[in-house]
Amino acid sequence: MFTANTTLMLVATFLPLLGALVLLLVPKDQRRVFEIGSLLVMIVSFLMSVVFWFGYDRASDAVQWAQAWNWIPAIGVKFSVGMDGISLLLWLLTTFIGPIAIACSFSSITERHKEYYIWMLVLQTAMLGVFITQDMFLFYLFWEVMLVPMYFLIAIWGGPQKLYAAIKLFLYTLAGGVLMLVAILAIYFLQHKTTGVYDFSLASFQAMAPVIAQQTKTYQVLLALAFFIGFAIKVPMFPFHTWLPDAHVQAPTAGSVILAAILLKMGTYGFVRFLLPILPTATKELLPWFIGLSLIGIIYGALVAMIQKDMKKLVAYSSVSHLGICMLGLFALNPYGIKGGLFQMINHGISTSGLFLAVGIVYERRHTRMIADFGGLSKSMPVYATIFMIMTMSSLGLPLLNGFIGEGVVLMGAFQAFPWAAVVATLGIILGAAYLLWMYQRVMFGPITAVNEKMDDLNLREVLYFAPLVVTAFWIGMYPKPIMDVMDAPVKKLVEQITPGYHAAQSLAAQQAVAAKLGMQGMTAPAHHEETAPAGHEAATAGHEAPVHEAAAPETHGHGGGH
Amino acid sequence: MTGFAQGLLDALLRDTHLITPQLFLMVVATLMLWPGDLFFNRNEKHRWAPITLVVLAITAALIGRTPDGEGFSRMFRMDGLTRGFEMLCVLGAAATVALSVKLLNGLKQQTVEYYALILFSLAGMLFLCGASDLISVYFSLELMAICIYILVAYLRDRATSVEAGMKYFLLGAFSSGILVYGISLLYGAAGGTTTNLADLNQALALTPTTSNLLVFSGVLMVLMGMAFKVAAVPFHMWSPDAYEGAPTPITMFMATAPKAAALAAFLRVFGAGLHGVSSEWVLPLSYIAGASMILGNVTAVRQESMKRLLAYSSIAHVGYMLLGVLSGDPRAGAQAVWLYMLIYIVMNTGAFAVVIYLQGKGEGERIEDFKGLGRKHPVLAFAMMVFMLSLAGIPPLAGFFGKFYLFKLAIEQGFVTLTVIALLTSAVGAYYYLGVVKEMYFREPEGEAVPMGATSVFVVTLACALVLVATAFGPWLVDWASKVTWV
Q1: Buried b vs exposed e over A278-311: b needs ≥16 C-beta within 10 Å?
Q2: Could you tell me if A290 and A416 lie in one domain?
Q3: In chain A, which residues have their Cβ closer than 8 Å to the Cβ of B474?
């Protein structure tokens, strides 16, 4: 019925906005119309997006369904859209979370329904737009537009400190965004100086990487820092994370879900899409700092989560920790690390939304989120306890559930690049298990109070919106291959962009390792073939500039270059 | 003697076509004062507003028809830059007139002088946009400013209004003195032969190094005099008080039309006239621009009065626009400033229209008065939100587009530090703009809803629509801006 093409992609992206415009005409006392209407719009948008999962050509690393229309030709701005595997996954995650976020709002939103659902729909289009755009100007546009609906969602329907939290989120992200704009413009003019064309397209920016690599070190580092701060605020990485607990705690449940599942992913997406491919040299230059901040985030987030008394704040800090793991994977700069990081982004989107939804359920019933107010809930709410358990396990990385795969792959990548960093990250994962299980234990077991005994278990609507999350968590945990396949080709391309000749060096090394093994078996080893060192050596002489043999610790950098 | 007089008359007649719009304005304004005023009795004075609007429309048409050229001993020049900025001035004046009617009716202060002064002042601005000689810059500035001094003090039975007018007048006169002194120094430095901007540029390049100090002090004083007119820090002290005391439509007028004209003069004086000695003024002007952005935005955060907030925010916006003057490429600079000014006028008109509407009911003066506007007037509040977000530069609204174009130019010309300051302070700006949004949407309303007046609805809706779609119409805007250029 539908084929995956650009038109359908644009329809799926802009359908929520269209729905918002239609809902604008409905009188504001028609609460049901807004609820059902926006849910339907989100579901239709999701169903349309699923077509792309099947239509995606996994063998190609190109941007698919790409199309561009001239917009402001004088300065080279195009309305340019398209997706590769990385964008596709996040785009699908967004359309997937959309209906869930709407469905969980039916009972929790008690006033100003019209505005609420309209803002949710506008937000959805802005977020979807970020993932399909292939033009830097357009990207910046969607990136900032997103802030306005989020600001209203938190500031109108949030908790007691909502105004403070909303403005903090807004200003932090805006400040990061404008720094990013400076970096974008700087590259734009560098491009004009070297090629003579004004072009904002992402492809042309990525093609600038070699030119940027020849600029002065200060210039590169400043550019990288401008991008880094812009995205790090959004992720958020330590020390730019302070807006996150405020925003999460004050936001309504659906706001937290969207914030955790999608908004934070935009930061990590920004790293993958812009910082790594456009500024690989400067990134490598600053890598120790980036890795350091990721590790601090992992440990600090986990430790602070441990002492929280408020469930929502605990989950919020767990996000800081989990996203540190994502970032560690991305900064490993090798296929395992990046794939794991991306994978962990999806996982975090599923499990943390699940946890926020779960916190939202008890908050709706008791209007408190303090861990101390609960206990023994597994007796009065068995279904809830089960789902909460699944989400907790998925978040802490139990095998058979999604989190395990992501963390495993990230650690593999990180170990190849920085073994000691992987060790520290493992500590963070252990701490993660500790605070999540401890929270679960305090909320679900133990003596039950009279008030908690009367709490209702999940109703049908609630079970229905948890169901897709639970199913996906199990599906990814047991059979992650389809998702890995989708990101395979684009990640391969990305690694090649970061370290030219990476895969060639890798496969050459592998071949020679095999050859060396065979040679040793067949005859006495030739004098110059010792262990695996020759592999890196040969790769260097094979004509690759900067052979980075990540498989053997970073020391090989100097080793290979020396010859 | 007769031969000289004949020659002078011929020259005047030959060049008259260049200043038809100005002549038209001055003649009409004079006729309005006498005998025009005799036709309407005391209660019919509000009829002057539509007549003034028609006059402004004709002026705009005349500006469009005036051919390019230079005349009056090369003191006035008509080209793309002049025409573009003249149109902005007319736009600002028209918006002022449209918004004045209701407020002046309410205060029973309708007089023909109000409208005539606006027209006279506009004539001064139109001269200023095309002034290509330091002397003509000076007298156009005075014609423009003196009318505005009176307009600021227009509500003469209110102490604040009179105080604001007096303050503005005294400081304005002072700064004019500095400007004239600077002009005389430059005149001397250039050998006492010319004040024409193009000639001055060549003459100053030839001055011996011994007169460097003379050139520098001359340039600095001209810069100070002009910075005063656009209210750039540290010559901004008059503006918050003048803004607060003046009748609100005049506040809007001051924030738009004279600024457009003064920036046109800025672009011409520094871009064309003193381009050769740019090493003398780039650094001071950079400091002025940076200080305007920082102080304007930071001080606006603490304001409780809506008019003062807009005054400080306009100081910050002038700081951004000075980036365009600073750029080493005067042509691109002029285009970016023009585009920004156009968008700024539209946003500001919208915001002031909302303030004036609320003021009609005795509110709107304080930011608190916006409390709960989202409930009382959803449309008005939505429009105000659009203006505020656009002033803050949030995409995809028009304000973002203007900023983008300007900052793009500044980075291209190597003013990276200033651009970073501009961007970060505009993030600070978002804080107080959102403060207004916060009052409107997140505070409970007090009092009953009152239906809106027709004029306000029209102005607000039009401005809101323009701001909303401006980024989508980027190609057209860039196209228009490209016409703003030297011949």
Answers
A1: bbbbbbbebbeebbebbbbbbbbbbebbbebebb
A2: yes
A3: 71-72, 77
